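Look over this record as teaching material.
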Amino acid sequence: MTQQGGTPGSEGPDTGLGEFGPEAARTIAAEIAGSMGTVISGKPQAIRLALVALLAEGHLLIEDVPGVGKTMLAKSLARSIDCSMHRIQFTPDLLPSDVTGVSVFDRQTSSFEFRPGAVFAHIVLGDEINRASPKTQSALLEAMEEQQVTVDGQTYQLPQPFMVIATQNPVEMEGTYPLPEAQRDRFLMQIQLGYPDRVAEIAMLDSHDIADPIAALRPVTDAATLQRLRDVARGVFASPAVKQYVVDLVAATRRDPLLRLGASPRAGVHLLQAARAHALLAGRDHALPDDVQALAVPVLAHRVLLSPEAHLSRTPAATVITEVVARVSVP
């Protein structure tokens, strides 16, 4: 792993990562983004944030109305990496055992045999996650936090690298269940796609005239390379001042009168991880306050709970987080 101490740019011990420095990592990430861009037109910021979550060893929640490309974004990211991928279509009748797996009695051996569920893959696509019951949603909690699954008292490790990319429709739409706060807190970030602009929508029509664009995607990297890129991102230098800035932002959300529940300590850890990955995508070996500011809304907004006053004034969480960032002094 890259040494985290010292000063940016200083020579440290051999990291064992060979050619996988910031510039090489940026090049590979650009190839993944280019591959995704052939499918997702006009959404470079959404693609960049998805890559940040990927390199920061986090999970990604994509929320938007049906038909804007949520599943397409998730599938294009998974298809761009040569690793195992499972898709779970969350429905009201989906059971927790369908996600995690189940122990089945084998008559020949007179013992129970574990049959892994759909969560046993490098990348798990949870489509319309908020259409399943809260009990089934919660089946992902241990997997997302601890990279493992416990069934009938036995613990099974998940393959590495591991990432959950979940899509959900807005909670006001019919047939949805709101995600529990504990589960939202385990997603490193939440993003929205929005409707494409006119040029991107015309390009989308052209691409779908020929064939399914997802079927034409070919991997540009593999699981082993991705794991090494994550090691590089983890080793991006973050100064004490940047860490203090992260703590100040998170603490400020807990004092804001428009928030009934502020960001958790886990949110601070995720914000720093994301800032390091964001810096790596920019070709830097050190994180800046600018990286933290750029990711504050997607990393923090989905974790907080609005106060009744904020609900009455229809102030979205993203606006509250933006105002918090504007108030907290930058080191």
User: Anything to note?
Assistant: Residues 19-211+220-234 form a domain with the Rossmann fold fold (CATH 3.40.50.300). Residues 265-281 form the longest helix (17 residues). Residues 1-18 have pLDDT under 50 and may be disordered.
